[in-house]
Design goal:
The protein is mainly alpha-helical and 87 residues long. The protein has helices spanning 8-32, 44-57. The protein has a domain at 1-58. The chain is built from two helices and no strands. This is NADH dehydrogenase [ubiquinone] 1 alpha subcomplex subunit 1.
Length: 87
């Protein structure tokens, strides 16, 4: 049974919008990831190392070759977000 010509135009519109959406999402992921492929299946160790890299360089994917951490690395810990309780 042939496809009616009236069905081709809506199908093309739907296929075009799916393609544009997928390509746009892929491009946004790529550029927000410092122009590197996205990471999948991260374990706890990799998440910790990504957090450390973010604190050292300001970017999740950035890495530093300096053997000594900058001075602000000691005070930008995630634990400083909690305020101490006064009993």
């Amino acid at each position: 049974m042939p496809v009616p010509i009236e069905a081709v135009i809506p199908f093309a519109v739907i296929a075009t919008f799916f393609t544009l959406t997928g390509s746009g999402l892929s491009a946004v992921k790529y550029y927000t990831n410092d122009k590197k492929p996205a990471r999948y299946g991260l374990d706890y160790w990799e998440s910790q190392m990504m957090e450390r890299d973010r604190r050292l360089t300001g970017s999740i994917r950035g890495q530093s070759v300096n053997p000594v951490a900058p001075p602000e690395f000691s005070i930008n810990s995630v634990w400083n977000l909690e305020k101490p309780r006064n009993h």
